[in-house]
Amino acid sequence: MASRLARSAIGAARLRPSIPSRTLPALTTSLTSYRSASGVPAEDPKKKAQSIIDSLPGNSLISKTAILSSTAGVAIYALSNEYYVVNEETIVALCLLSIWGAVFKYGGPMYKEWADGQVNKIKGILNAARADHTEAVKTRIESVQQLGSVVDITKTLFEVSKETAQLEAKAFELEQTTALAAEAKSVLDSWVRYEGQVKIRQQKELSETIIAKIQKELENPKVLQQILQQSVTDVERIVASKAQ
């Protein structure tokens, strides 16, 4: 079984075009020169090693060392027995991993800083909106508290309006009574004037009737004789009374 796997691995290695080992130093040199030209600060090897050790699974240094040694042994065994051959796919994978690692390493803090800035900006906007809303609510509460005496003022105004309505009703009644009295007085005055006119007319008719009757009686000689005799008798009585 092991020989069969070895033969298949050797066949795959022969079929796949591999990169010569002499090209690896040139590639490493170019990567190193590109890194130094990019101005990226070099990390301390101790910190780098410590970060790699911390990234390994395990709770103790012994377990992490065992995992790292076993992984290195398996890799060396695979490479020495040509179970795995370094080819262009491996270089591409390493480049991609390096690029993604650099992106996560250098772009992660910038993205985190930008995200924290956006979060803080949104928090500031929300806090400002909450503060404005709180201030508006407080202002509204104060304005409502200032209107606390509106109930008493409304009650007073209602009482005043009630009294005003009563006074207006009384004034209307008095106005109607005055108008009725004025109309009754005008009717009574008209009746008095009518009765006065009737009395004057009756007296005039009576006087005219009496004058006409007297004038008619004066036209009778007997009446004139009687009046003359009565007058003479009255004159003699007056003279006789003065002589005594």
From TrEMBL:
<comment type="similarity">
    <text>Belongs to the eukaryotic ATPase B chain family.</text>
</comment>
<dbReference type="GO" id="GO:0005743">
    <property type="term" value="C:mitochondrial inner membrane"/>
</dbReference>
<protein>
    <recommendedName>
        <fullName>ATP synthase subunit 4</fullName>
    </recommendedName>
</protein>
<keyword id="KW-0496">Mitochondrion</keyword>
<keyword id="KW-0138">CF(0)</keyword>
<comment type="function">
    <text>Subunit b, of the mitochondrial membrane ATP synthase complex (F(1)F(0) ATP synthase or Complex V) that produces ATP from ADP in the presence of a proton gradient across the membrane which is generated by electron transport complexes of the respiratory chain. ATP synthase complex consist of a soluble F(1) head domain - the catalytic core - and a membrane F(1) domain - the membrane proton channel. These two domains are linked by a central stalk rotating inside the F(1) region and a stationary peripheral stalk.</text>
</comment>
<keyword id="KW-0999">Mitochondrion inner membrane</keyword>
<dbReference type="InterPro" id="IPR013837">
    <property type="entry name" value="ATP_synth_F0_suB"/>
</dbReference>
<dbReference type="Pfam" id="PF05405">
    <property type="entry name" value="Mt_ATP-synt_B"/>
</dbReference>
<dbReference type="GO" id="GO:0046933">
    <property type="term" value="F:proton-transporting ATP synthase activity, rotational mechanism"/>
</dbReference>
<keyword id="KW-0813">Transport</keyword>
<comment type="subunit">
    <text>F-type ATPases have 2 components, CF(1) - the catalytic core - and CF(0) - the membrane proton channel. In yeast, the dimeric form of ATP synthase consists of 17 polypeptides: alpha, beta, gamma, delta, epsilon, 4 (B), 5 (OSCP), 6 (A), 8, 9 (C), d, E (Tim11), f, g, h, i/j and k.</text>
</comment>
<keyword id="KW-0406">Ion transport</keyword>
<dbReference type="InterPro" id="IPR008688">
    <property type="entry name" value="ATP_synth_Bsub_B/MI25"/>
</dbReference>
<keyword id="KW-0375">Hydrogen ion transport</keyword>
<keyword id="KW-0472">Membrane</keyword>
<dbReference type="GO" id="GO:0045259">
    <property type="term" value="C:proton-transporting ATP synthase complex"/>
</dbReference>
